[in-house]
Amino acid sequence: MSAPGQAIGAASTSRRVKDLAFRVAMLSCLGLAMLLLGVLIADVAVDGIGHLSLDFITSDPSSTASQAGIQPALWGTIYLMAVCLLFIVPVGVATAIYLEEYADTSKWWNRMIEVNIQNLAAVPSIVYGILGLAFLVRGPLSLGQVVLSGGLTLGLLVLPVVIIAGREAIRAVPSSIREGSMALGATQWQTIWRQVLPAAVPGIATGVILALARAIGETAPLIVVGAATFITFNPDGLASAYSAMPIQIFDWVSGRPSSPENDFGPLAAAAILVLLALLMSMNAAAIWLRNRYEQKW
Amino acid sequence: MTEPRDPQRENAEREHPIPSLHTREPSEAAPGGEAAQHQPAREAIFQLAGVSVSYGDKPAVRDITFDIGNNEITALIGPSGCGKSTLIRCLNRMNDLIPSATVSGRLLYHGEDLYAKEVDAVEVRKRIGMVFQKPNPFPKSIYDNIAFGPRVLGMKGSMDDIVERALTRAAVWDEVKDRLKTNAFGMSGGQQQRLCIARCLAVEPDVILMDEPCSALDPISTGKIEDLMLELEKEYSIVIVTHNMQQAARVSDKTAFFTVELDADQKNRTGRVVEFDDTEKIFTNPGDARTEAYVTGKVG
Q1: How many domains does one find in chain B?
Q2: What ipTM was predicted for this assembly?
Q3: Which member of A179, A183, A295 has the closest CB to residue B139?
Q4: Is residue B2 part of a domain?
Q5: Are B104 and B51 contacting, i.e. CB atoms less than 8 angstroms apart?
Q6: For chain A (length 297 residues), average pLDDT per consecutive 10?
Q7: Considering only CA atoms, which of A284, A290, A294, A275 is closest in space to residue A81?
Q8: Do B132 and A187 touch (CB under 8 A)?
Q9: Residues 190-209, chain B, touching A (beta carbon < 8 A)
Q10: Which of B191, B195, B208 shows the shortest CA–CA distance to B126?
Q11: What domains are defined for chain A?
């Protein structure tokens, strides 16, 4: 114990130096990460910004660099995201509800489901491509190399993200709300549908947007399930052949021999910029949604 | 809340019994109160016989046997951890929500077994409502909070009328009638609790169970809710768990005193009812020494 009357002095010099050194180290790491990101984006921007134009977005790919555009790829991505969304929302939310509200955790199969969802989120994306090829494109469903199989494959890939985010959102709803609802004579389903889910919507929506943001950039599974690298028409329905932005970028970067007269490099950079813009706006939307509607219990 | 241990005051209490602590109107206390003691027991709305609750293999309460009267306020008092909340949650089958809870014994509601196989717990909760310790309004507007119960139960009639009637009966209509569409979280604690009471009333139950409804509230809100209880008693039966002995003395007609006892095997502590009687008798002339020790503040 300190003697009475002893003033509370300042921290010793060595402690203050260590504190400062730690702060400097942390900020340097942060700065390094930001710098790398900045350099990457700047490099792409310098290459590609000149090629960004309405023509670029509305033209079809071509063997001639000056005439090539990303229209089919962009529409393909949009169609894929739509199919993915329509799949992951009902399936993901229903799974999250089952695991949080109905599953008896003392039963081994429920625990197994929980563990497996964590595992599925970590499986490399190309494995999902092979899964899609075996079951959706060929095999039992034999849908062929069409938008539907591509979208469902991406959906399977990002489903664990939605389930995990959905569970977090549902779990965050306090049990006092459920008790209050049940005490009024509501059934469990009425409580979930009218109280728990509405309160969990912001968290679920954020999870869905982040899942789509992941799906939008996936290339390997799409290559395996047969997205076309050269296609000159927009998808005309779920049973249509299709391309996607990452595939188009991949084709322009490495699939096509470039010559000085026919340089696809800047085109790829421009396409990357478009994709990045899409990604960043989706992430921004997710953050805005979360901040605006998040319920602080 | 324990009273200060003052022998002088204890003696004074015996000479000047509970009526001095009552804030009831004399017209209510005198003829009604006195007459009730001489009338035959009012019709019992709940009859408990040997009710015991365990969580897993840990017994929580054992052998609870008493009747809860119709249109009365029955208070469950006793120190913490002796199973008052556990027992009150049995009365509307809220313990069904806890997987490890098992209820045994006989619990009759209007003569019917509440835990019979064919009884649907959801139906039970329509007739027997509950107000919780911490106010738990839904994250919706005030209007939607009240309307939720009637909507899910499919009650007929104008929803506006139902909402207004419930809020009026809970003595909170004047304060909120201009902001029915605002979020319920914007209300003060006392208002939120009255909102929860209004929500409970909107589904027109027979019984209102209150689990320490005022323990999270300031004295003014507490007073308002106690007045409300005395009003509601005319139409509903109320069971209230309270730590506040003076509150039990102020509002209730009958009181059950709980305590915790070590089991025969000296391992588990279970809650039991030591004494159940008219409130006046419990507080002025209790039959059991443990009751006396508690109500006079000798033990907490």
Answers
A1: 1
A2: 0.80
A3: A295
A4: no
A5: yes
A6: 74 88 96 95 88 82 80 91 95 94 85 89 93 92 90 95 94 94 94 94 91 93 87 84 90 76 82 90 87 74
A7: A275
A8: no
A9: 196, 199-200, 203
A10: B208
A11: 67-293 (1.10.3720.10)
